Amino acid sequence: MSLPILQSDVLQVDGVSHAFFTREGGVSGGVYASLNGGRGSRDNPDHVNENLGRMADTLGVQRQNFLLPYLVHSPDCLLVDAPFGAERPRCDALVTKTRGLALGVTGADCGILLFADEQAGVIGAAHAGWKGAFTGVLEATLQKMEEAGASRPSIHVVLGPTIAQASYEVGPEFRARFIEADPKNAWFFAPSARDVHYMFDLPAYIGARLKANGVGRFDNLGLDTYADETRFYSYRRSVHRQEDDYGRLVAAIALI
Fold first, then answer.
1. What secondary structure, in 3-state letters, does 82-96 show?
2. Is 201 contained in some domain?
3. Residue 181 CB contacts under 8 Å (≥ 6 apart), including other chains
4. What CATH number should be reported for the domain holding residue 102?
5. Which of 13, 26, 118, 189 is least buried, going by the fewest C-beta atoms within 10 A?
6. Where are the alpha helices (DSSP H) in the chain?
């Protein structure tokens, strides 16, 4: 079956299939309703597997060729050329130039990004929460793509549904960490209604790092996971509601 998906014109290129899946069209129930792609959640594993299978079908790849790593909020990226073995690698980004493989990452407020160099036939997917973006997962993905033959000016990148600045309040220690790394990072923080707190613009921070690293095109879908409960899961929303767990969105890209 074909699922409802979000796409970007930036990745509408020959030989590439991509999708930012919403939470709609799956078989999960409760807080996971319905297209939960999180193998790390406490959802029924059979439901998660069926959801991921439907995503693979939508992308046009065999289900066993849909690869999602074990995310650990790291700056690590892995170049892959075949399906994983029994254990998923612990990293936060994948790159391939092998046709028939789909690369995916999950998220529920963190940035989920897809990369493609049409000319070189190289694609990537990255999970970039604040920690991954701060420590270099975006740069690691670009480097792996270059190792596979991509050219940075030819790489197109799209940021999928991510928590927006209006929904992302942080404390003073969080802001101080960014300012210490680079005083110019103050631009990504706005005052909060609460004293000594700030609103952090994760999408803008991600976009700035990508542009500083010379990517050819960058597109931010501009969709707030926290604010749109109908279409998106949100970790922060689940915490505010004191829910036991939360579903995960999936972004994926394939060479077909």
1. CCCCCCCCECCEEEE
2. no
3. 134
4. 3.60.140.10
5. 13
6. 45-59, 130-135, 137-147, 172-181, 202-212, 235-240
